[in-house]
Amino acid sequence: MTKVTHPLIDPNTGFYNLKVFFPQWIPYEHYLFSALAFMKNSFKNSILNSIKPENCLNLNSFDLLKNNTKEFITNSKFESDNSRSDDTLYKKEDDNCTMVFNKIGENDLSNCHFIL
Hints:
This is UBC core domain-containing protein. It comes from Smittium culicis. InterPro entries: UBQ-conjugating_enzyme/RWD. The mean pLDDT is 87. The longest helix has 15 residues, at 69-83. α3 packs across α4 (69-83). 36% of the residues lie in helices and 0% in strands. By secondary structure, the protein is mainly α. The radius of gyration is 18 Å and the shape is globular.
């Protein structure tokens, strides 16, 4: 699991606090795409600036965001860059993992067949 600096994400478990936007999940009223849209938008200033300490799973990140924005941005950029490194993208976390990604080259693409 790659590290993410964000007040709503627990740094140890990676758990994301959706209760800020969905206090109680209601099936057939709340949808996965709405949750994903909120997660995406939660990295924008409008949401970041509206987060309250009682909703935070990462108070250190919240403190940095409020008191040292430059360091918060530096940490976030470092972790974002790291999440796109080959070592991270192609790392097999667990032998039981069903999704494993391998790097392919231009020549390997000729072996791919697409049916439209």
